[in-house]
Amino acid sequence: MYLTAEIKKSMFKEHGGSEKNTGTSEGQIAIFTHRINFLTKHLQENPKDLSTKRSLVNLVGKRKSLLEYLKAKDIAAYRALIKKLEIRR
Fold it and tell me: Quick check: 12 and 18 in contact, CB under 8 A?
């Protein structure tokens, strides 16, 4: 599995403050970005997988709405997260 419990804990610890604080916007965005990168690589190898393509579009939309929320809430944290995750915006 590409997203194990240990990877999730480390991502939430790095971006969310603690590994048990899974509700932070930064942690959610980091997890979504990891999944988006994995699905993008999968779709490059399997271009006819339409269900994965639909899931990817949904994830990008969720991440975009969380990024907009974070941008309105705390612009400094938003800019730091964009730079850290290397998200083009």
Answer: yes
pLDDT digits (tens, 9 = 90+) for 42-76: 999 999 999 999 999 999 999 999 999 999 999 99
Q: Indicate the pTM of the whole model.
A: 0.90
User: Which domain covers residue 87, as residue numbers?
Assistant: 63-89
Q: What is the dihedral of CA 16, 31, 89, 50, to 10 degrees?
A: -160
DSSP 61: H
Could you identify the residue written with the tokens 């938003």? Answer: 78
Q: Give the CA radius of gyration of the chain.
A: 14
Check: CB of residue 11 under 8 Å from CB of residue 27.
yes
- Tokens 């309105």 — which residue? 72
Asked, for residue 29, whether it belongs to a domain, the answer is no
